[in-house]
Design a protein that fits this description.
Blueprint: H1 16-38, H2 44-62, H3 73-102, H4 109-129, H5 132-146, H6 171-179, H7 188-210, H8 212-224, H9 230-246, H10 249-267, H11 271-284, H12 295-303, H13 307-335, H14 349-356, H15 360-371, H16 376-401, H17 406-451, H18 453-465, H19 469-484, H20 489-507, H21 512-522, H22 534-543, H23 547-557, H24 560-570, H25 573-576, H26 580-602, H27 611-624, H28 629-654, H29 656-659
Length: 662
């Protein structure tokens, strides 16, 4: 769901028969998931392999061997046809042979060969749908499993540090680990993609097709457009709502940015600034409850914390992030003397709500069902049913209000069926990349479990950091940035938490849920951090600005992505709870710290801040993050004092005496 390579409409070069096959396969896959979510749940060794088989078939149909937009030709079709047939075999092998496989002590040769085929098609599918980086990482982990005195590639052991050495494993053992149980490809990552993630991707597709996306964007404009920097603030609010549903920062940028970036430029924001603001806001959508891309579902599976609890504890940090972006946007607007849009240029809140209030009902139903304790998969099913019911009821209301006719009713039904099929196909398409990423992530999980790499990586991390928790978190941040250059957010989070999670929790004492939240937040940074800022590049394309300049702006506006996880670590009561006064204090100082940081970063709040004031603000922010109440109080006092001076100075600037010295 959180792929940074969100699938768009197929290229026109594809023959119509291929487009029809893609549509049919996608619709059947979506119906299969609706059946499993709302009618008859399936066992994991049925649900996951069947899901993977469908996804692989779609992948090889949508992404030709020579690249998208290139004609396949006879050789291309021979290759892709073979891979499609192999994908069908991969999806059917485990469900058909599950009784035999479950009752045997040693795997049959044919099962091993089926496993090798599964690994190969998964790596090739990931190369096409996600990128070469994901495939290379998967292949490196498999090579690592073979590296050792008893492995298939013993010579590789000589290239590894002593702590990384292990005994090595045979082809039969690795293939079995990857494909004949729930520890490899068919493990937790693919399980989450094949259940919760798919159903909510499908929910997002229904929202998009029925026009809910435009409704939420228009509502954000109507609410904020008259304020200073209104379109930029609307971008922040719209991205908060749409980002969680779309599951992709890039998809969020191109969806909301198509409206917000041109208006920001019209208002006076520089092109790079407009693209950067949209990229930072869109990245925040991935940490915004209730969906948080795919992160909340994965976190729930890994930590065994109920999904609804993860959603609830993530609300305040997400508000802090968007509050920081909103404040930076406001400061930039005031510094540049911007005004808001006129009433004539904006939709009215009343008109927007009148035309789309029914889109709020599925979201209310979704939240209510989650709080009521329904499983996320069942909640997704009912949310889809709710959006279909709401859109149908609205269409019928308009139909009867405008004078019903038999021909009109037939046309209405045809349009309803067409939109439903379009949503079913779109949901399947949008799930391809994230499912492929999760399948390769399963390979990584399987190798880590087989070789004990997680504990070894933890030992290396402790050695490099010298036991200092701040240095350890800095190492996690650097690792997430490097991984994010080649992996989508979900995959980066899975790889990182497997490798560094044990060290963060066992050696540094960070609570399990906070460790997962920190790693998940840091996994977003490749969207906004140069030199590879994927959401920033998407914003630059729309804004017509230089990609690197836009990425620097996105990095600046997304600073909360780095600070808020640190605050979680040193003030864990804002996540885990505690005495009410302590929770309130922690929440209050977090807000003060982010306001102070934003003011120091921009050098402005109510008026321009002198350099000495900005320099003093930095130790005040650091003090608030210090795990000592005395130091925190001193930091708060320093920041509030500097902010008070800034406010007082602005009042003096606007007083009659200051305006007219005579």
């Amino acid at each position: 769901m959180d792929s940074d390579t969100q699938i768009t409409a197929p290229r026109a070069q594809e023959p119509w028969i291929v487009l029809r096959v893609i549509a049919v396969v996608g619709i059947v896959l979506s119906l299969f998931h609706l059946y499993a979510a709302g009618v008859q749940p399936l066992g994991l060794f049925f649900q996951r392999p069947i899901h993977l088989g469908f996804i692989l078939v779609l992948c090889f149909l949508i992404y030709p061997v020579w690249g998208r937009g290139q004609a396949r030709g006879p050789l291309g079709w021979a290759i892709d046809g073979t891979l499609i047939a192999a994908s069908i075999l991969v999806g059917a092998w485990l469900p058909i042979n599950i009784d035999t496989i479950a009752n045997q002590i040693f795997p049959r040769s044919i099962d091993v060969w089926a496993g090798i085929l599964t690994i190969f098609v998964v790596l090739e599918g990931a190369r096409r749908a996600v990128g070469l980086g994901m495939t290379i990482i998967g292949a490196v982990f498999i090579a690592y499993a073979f590296a050792g005195s008893r492995g298939e590639l013993p010579f590789l052991a000589d290239w590894m540090p002593g702590i990384m050495n292990h005994r090595g494993y045979s082809l039969e053992r690795v293939a079995s680990q990857m494909t004949l149980g729930a520890e490899g490809i068919f493990g937790i990552p693919l399980g989450v993609a094949a259940t919760f993630v798919f159903i909510f991707v499908l929910f997002g597709a229904f929202l998009e097709v029925t026009g809910a996306g435009k409704f939420f964007i228009d509502l954000a404009y109507a609410a904020t457009g008259k304020q200073r920097g209104g379109p930029a603030k609307a971008a922040v609010i719209a991205s908060a709502g749409m980002g969680s549903i779309s599951g992709s920062a890039i998809a969020n940028v191109v969806t909301t940015g198509a409206f917000t970036i041109p208006l920001m430029k019209k208002l006076g924001y520089r092109p790079a600034q407009a693209g950067g603001i949209e990229a930072a806001a869109s990245t925040g959508g991935q940490i915004m409850p209730p969906l948080m891309g795919a992160g909340a579902f994965l976190m729930s599976e890994f930590t065994r914390v109920p999904y609804v609890d993860i959603v609830l504890v993530s609300i305040f940090p997400a508000i802090l992030y968007f509050g920081a972006v909103y404040l930076l946007v406001h400061i930039a607007a005031v510094k540049q003397g911007m005004t808001g849009l006129s009433s004539e240029e904006l939709p009215s809140v009343r008109a927007v709500l009148a035309g789309g209030w029914h889109f709020l009902l599925p979201l209310v139903a979704l939240v209510w069902l989650l709080v009521a304790g329904y499983s996320p998969m069942r909640v997704g099913f009912y949310a889809i049913a709710a959006i279909i019911a709401a859109a149908s009821a609205r269409a019928l209301w308009v139909f009867f209000a405008n004078g019903p006719t038999a021909g009109g009713f037939v046309a209405l039904c045809q349009r309803g069926v067409a939109l439903t099929l379009q949503a079913l196909e779109l949901g399947a398409r949008n799930a391809v990349a994230v499912s492929m990423a999760c399948a390769v992530a399963g390979i990584i999980v399987g190798v880590v479990g087989l070789t004990g790499l997680g504990l070894k990586f933890s030992a290396m991390m402790i050695a490099f950091s010298g036991g200092n928790i701040v240095l350890a978190l800095l190492l996690v941040l650097l690792a997430s940035l490097i991984l994010g250059m080649g992996l989508p957010v979900t995959a980066a989070y899975i790889v990182l938490i497997i490798l560094v999670g044990p060290a963060l929790t066992q050696e540094f004492g960070i609570p399990l849920l906070i460790a997962h939240l920190v790693v998940f937040w840091y996994s977003q940074d490749s969207n906004v951090t140069p030199p590879v800022a994927l959401a920033g590049f998407a914003g630059a394309a729309i804004a017509g600005s230089k990609p690197m300049e836009t990425s620097v702006q996105a990095w600046k506006y997304a600073k909360g992505l780095y600070l808020i996880p640190l605050f979680m670590v040193f003030n864990e009561e804002i996540i885990l709870g505690g005495p009410l006064p302590l929770v309130i204090w922690s929440g209050l100082i977090a807000i003060i710290a982010l306001v102070g940081f934003a003011a120091a970063l921009e050098g402005f709040l109510w008026r321009t801040m002198p350099l000495w004031s900005r320099a003093l603000m930095v130790p005040g922010v650091v003090a608030i993050f210090w795990p000592s109440l005395t130091v925190e109080v001193a930091g708060v006092a320093l920041i509030l004092g500097l902010l008070a001076l800034n406010w007082w100075g602005s009042k003096a600037d606007t007083s009659p005496r200051a305006a007219d010295p005579a």
